[in-house]
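Structure tokens please, single chain.
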Amino acid sequence: MLAENTNFVKVAALSDVAEGKPRAVRVEGHSIALFQHEGAVYATDNQCPHMGYPLVRGRVRRGVLSCDWHGWSYDMEGGGCFTGGCDDLATFPVEVRNGDVYVDVASGGNKRDDAHFLLFKEGLLTTDNWTLSKAIAIMLAKGVSEEETLNLMVKHMGGHISTDQDAFNGGRKLAMMMNGVKVARMYEPEDRLIPLMLAAEGASGRLGDRPDRRPLPPPIDWQKLEDWIRVFTFDKEWEGIEKCLITARRLGGHDEKIVPLLFECAVQPFFVDRSRNLINLGHLAELLDQFGWGLSEELVCNLGAKILGEGRGRPSELHREAIQKLENLSPIFDELPQETSAESTVDYDEDKFSAALVSGDLDEVFDAVTEMLTAGVPINNLATTMIMTAGDRMARTPVNMSPGWWDLQEEMELGTTVRKVLRYGGTKVAAKALYHAAWRFFSNRWLNIRYQSLTEQRTSTRSAMLDEDAVLSEILDGIESVRIQEIGRRTREYLNAGCSAERLMAEMGLSILKDDNGHNLLSSIYMVSEEWKRCGSHPARNQLIVGLARWATDIRRNAGNDSAVQTAHRFARGETATELYE
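Here you go.
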């Protein structure tokens, strides 16, 4: 009989584990694979570390255990993985006593305490969604804080974008990461894995080499650097901008001036057709707020410089016309009052402004912005109108032709970005940003969407009382089943009946994120949720939700990442695919 303090437990008779006929046993909640091979008995985790297939269904050759699903192979005794970089197999001490097999589960297990970090690094380098899902799930299950996980993403992303991405793709990846993080925080921890995985996918990519960027030698002061950044922005010389930003950081005492200067440069008239610049700078500003200069410096200095210094090409005739109009408007910006949070007493014809935005006439669009600004309408109110106009258009756009979902999302996103520019850059810069956002509406004049008043009530009375659970289930099924023609109507009925919009948005977001195309909707999921709450008294706010439901349905595809994410959750909980076979 074994001593009381031993960790070994009897798991099987030796006669039950024949050569070439492995057996799975349950020990303290673990599925353990037992093998007799070349006269010795081995015990390993029955779960393949790659994707959880039971290893008793694999094959053994000369001490190498191979999984039958994807062919990953392991050293049966030590657990080392031959195929992946850090997915070692858990193995356990075995003793054979009096014809019985004993296994010490407590003393065996994983060989690397940092395996989850190595796995995460592998996922960030390879951009593999499954590896990222698994690594994040394991890290969170092991008690690694979400903050630490995000810090690793930001650090990797800084090196990746600075060495491997231009302004366009760097901005796209930054947006994916930031929107993934925002959406994740809308949900409880158990529902955050997919948006966090999408955030990590945005941060992922190969790391290249580049020489260290050192600051300019003295004598240098902030005024010189500010002037040079403006010059290099005009000349499209991003490396000069980066050098100046790095120098400003090393000077010290000027950190709070950097983001406002980036926004000020980005609203120059010659950037009028580069509206993504403002959106991407908004993400950079939020990144810096959240993670601080210590983690964000490389990304802010490099991507900020690339955004301002990107090649712009020769403007078209309409672009030249818009640039000239903005240059002529320069005097009005100095006379604008500072934006306040108090309710405005200025009369504001919101329908007039909304109709002008979608008029398709450049003079009418820009004149409307000028009229509202000079009348004292708060910039936040004008941003709200842009957001609601975009949401209303999304709710009503025809889907029998190209519906322009991404264009409409960008209209909405520019409205929210104007709020960020106001916060980080001040009234004058935000006023200029309004014209850049308005240009996007003008550019979308090709969209075949009939104008409708924003301020009129969408329904005079509430719909008949509905069974909220049943209708919510029908809406989600309509998204899953791609029933685009009815999804808008059912969503409006649900909202008009007074059913919970917050519940619908939460459930809809989870449904959208099952789809491989869910990353395209990350921005809208977050914006719709935030702006619906912010604009509580606006008669058109439900159109934001209707538009999101229609886009989510139209973009739906049958292939999703749900399987990988569910498997990752099983890994984290210690449950595996082996349970499907035992």
